[in-house]
Amino acid sequence: MSNDVHDWYTRAAILLFAIIALLIGWDVIADHRESVNFGHMAVEVFVMSVAAGGTVLLWLQLGRTQSDLARALVENAQWSRENRELLQGLGAAIHKQFDTWSLTKAEAEVGLLILKGLSHKEIAQVRKTSERTIREQARALYRKSGLSGRAELSAFFLEDLLLPLGDEGTGA
Asked: How far is CA 108 from CA 88, 104, 131, 157, in A?
């Protein structure tokens, strides 16, 4: 679910809790004027307090979520800036390998989207084509590369980026 939809649902829930609290508060005032028994009023005040508490908790959660998202976006932008040169080099290496495998432009685009983690259905939506076409292009990519699937495709490009076992702390 996208963040905008999540925010919309949370804001709608906040509004709903607030409306419930206000309506119950209005009913408590009306009941008080009519001298309704204490037990009934106590239950309504309790429910109103729960609804008001739910409003506050959801409002605080929305604030934390938005703060976490903003922090993650800043960290992502910083990581991208710091690693732009490396990412461009990796991108060039991927394109060069795709050329070595003689992939068509469409197969190369599908390959990049597979490497980004998109499903065949998502790739079909992005490329505005059928999922069947994407599956055929992915099969052609795997056949031309000699790889068996998306895991081997990812491993082909990422394997050399990882440090050998035992070299984690050496920086080499």
From this structure: 16, 6, 16, 14
